[in-house]
Specification:
This is DUF7695 domain-containing protein. This protein has 61 residues and is mostly beta strands. The protein contains no helices and seven strands. The strands form two sheets. Strands 1, 2, 6 and 7 form a four-stranded antiparallel β-sheet that branches. Strands 3-4-5 form a three-stranded antiparallel β-sheet, with no helix packed on it.
Length: 61
């Protein structure tokens, strides 16, 4: 399976953030979480203060 969309939603601010390509680190509006990796890998980071997130990435066969 391959990643088709690398996306998370921050539970604190509600931002949906998408990483488009490898090394494309994107933070949510409150800087509580970040997503990276594009369609190559899934990487999640937490900020200070950290926030929880919901993974909403999509996969294809």
């Amino acid at each position: 399976m391959k990643i088709s969309v690398n996306q998370i939603q921050c539970k604190r601010c509600g931002s949906i953030i998408t990483s488009e390509h490898s090394h494309d680190l994107k933070w949510c509006m409150c800087r509580g979480v970040a997503v990276d990796g594009g369609r190559d890998y899934l990487k999640r980071l937490t900020g200070d203060p950290p926030s929880e997130y919901t993974g909403i990435s999509k996969w294809e066969e």
